[in-house]
Specification:
Strand order of the largest sheet: 4-5-6-1-7-13-12-8-9
Shape: globular
Strand content: 15-25%
Structural class: alpha+beta
Length: 469
């Protein structure tokens, strides 16, 4: 969730909550016993958090797939991130010359050949195309491509890929057809391809997956919400395997125009590649991106039985709400800090074990520092943690952001290298963390977390670690 500069979208006049945190909320965050260990005022004995040991409930990542501004290959994507390459450039998909922002992380040269048949490829909204391709590539990565799908029980395999905006091109074209030519010219695919659940549905139809299937739409927090929900389906024994993540394709006139109206976007048209600059004093808004990021998540027991390639372990996560304002972050950071704490509790991890954070960090004036302030509430020693911002290179991919950033987090774990946060020219002194400024760094990750926040006050945090049997 990031602040906008629109005078009509002002913070709530209500004073910040006092006394017990979230005292007015329906489900207040549980006070974490291990957080108290860092307090100088307590003498109580604190038991260490315990990670899940049951192989039926441990959740591992066995495949990753994406569609990005850097292409559809996970290794190429991460190599370009490590090189500090910017994927931001002028928008040429439509005439953007009259918009105050004329650039973004637009995908070019995308091909679904081999993944979607020709007729559907021409018909589908890009949001759905990105979802299907990323999902199938993730299965290939998990050794479940083609006939190998027969290895699993499809009744116990599900899909949970969300989107913040849905099929925006199909929706926009349908409205235009109605206005210009009347209702008879609206395509019969208008509703099916516009609604947010259709990505998960179409992917399941193609694969024959009959397990849990739906979408979550929590704006820019969508992907992490999907990972969290998918993992819980596995933990509860409702599924052996889930395809989870996010997809988005909103770089079209109505999408760009909507965010321009919110005054959320950078207007650095003279230098698009340096426009997304999280934690830099001269940041002036976020940069739109698009794509899809998907993980194959399964129980450790199921993965080991089929001899799956285990890439990393999902330890846990959490979701909550600021309950404060449509677009502005809470000044006290309570929503984000409590979400981080609850994710660590779910993961069985103490704050001292975390040494890497893939931050939400969108390059907005209020949002970047609000996140940093919340992180400082949970992690007292800023020297031991490195944080970086994937959005500095690919822009803000909205509902797909968390998916693409989870892949970056897992790749950081498996490679031992953190990608840089580029465009760090004039750093905010209040940040105090190592932001991996402008150049990649070698770093052995113990536990990494990935943050995603969305309009409406939606907060989400997920935790990953190297897999250890």
């Amino acid at each position: 969730m990031q602040a906008l500069q629109n005078p009509y979208l002002r913070p709530s006049p209500l004073a910040p909550l006092r006394g017990k945190p979230n005292s007015g909320a329906k489900c207040p965050p549980k006070k974490l016993s291990f957080i108290a260990a860092s307090s100088a005022t307590t003498n109580s004995t604190v038991s260490a958090p315990k990670r899940e040991k049951d192989p039926k409930k441990r959740v591992v990542v066995t495949g990753m797939g994406l569609v990005s501004v850097f292409g559809n290959d996970v290794d190429v994507y991460y190599d370009k991130l490590l090189a500090g390459e910017s994927g931001i450039g002028p928008i040429d998909r439509f005439d953007a010359s009259k918009f105050p922002t004329r650039f973004g992380g637009q995908i070019r040269g995308f091909s679904a050949e081999g993944y979607i048949d020709g007729k559907n490829d021409r018909r589908l909204d890009d949001c759905l195309r990105y979802c299907i391709v990323a999902g199938k590539k993730a299965l290939e990565d998990a050794d479940l491509g083609g006939d190998d799908l027969s290895k699993i029980d499809k009744v116990r395999a599900g899909v949970l890929v969300g989107t913040g905006m849905g099929g925006l091109t199909v929706f926009s074209d349908g409205v235009q057809a109605l206005i210009e030519r009347g209702h008879r010219k609206i395509t019969p695919f208008f509703i099916p391809y516009a609604i947010t659940n259709m990505g998960s549905a179409l992917l399941a139809i193609e694969l024959g997956f009959m397990g849990p299937n739906y979408s979550i739409s929590t704006a820019c927090a969508t992907s992490n919400y999907c990972f969290y929900a998918a993992a819980n389906h596995i933990r509860r024994g409702e599924a052996d395997l889930m395809i989870a993540g996010g997809t988005e394709a909103a770089i079209i006139p109505i999408g760009l125009g909507g965010f321009v109206a919110c005054r959320a976007l950078s207007q650095r048209n003279d230098d698009p590649r340096s426009a997304s600059r999280p934690w830099d004093k001269d940041r002036d808004g976020f940069v739109m991106g698009e794509g899809a990021g998907v993980l194959v998540m399964e129980s450790l027991e199921h993965a080991m039985k089929r001899g799956a390639p285990i890439i990393a372990e999902y330890l846990g996560g959490a979701v909550n709400c600021d309950a404060h304002h449509m677009t502005d972050p809470r000044a006290d950071g309570l929503g984000v800090s409590s979400c981080i704490e609850r994710s660590l509790e779910d993961a069985g991890v103490s704050p001292e074990e975390v040494n890497y954070i893939n931050a939400h960090a969108t390059s907005t004036l209020a949002g970047d520092l609000a996140e940093i302030n919340a992180i400082k509430k949970v992690f007292k020693n800023t020297l031991d943690i490195k944080i970086n911002a994937t959005k500095s290179m690919i822009g803000h991919c909205l509902g797909a952001a968390g998916g693409l950033e989870a892949i970056a987090t897992v790749k950081a774990i498996t490679t031992g290298w953190l990608h840089p946060t580029i465009n760090q020219f004039n750093p905010e002194p209040a940040v105090e963390f190592d932001t991996v400024a402008n150049k990649k760094k070698q770093h052995e990750i113990n536990v990494g977390i990935s943050n995603s926040f969305g309009f409406g006050g939606h907060n989400s945090v997920v935790a990953f670690a190297p897999f250890k049997p």
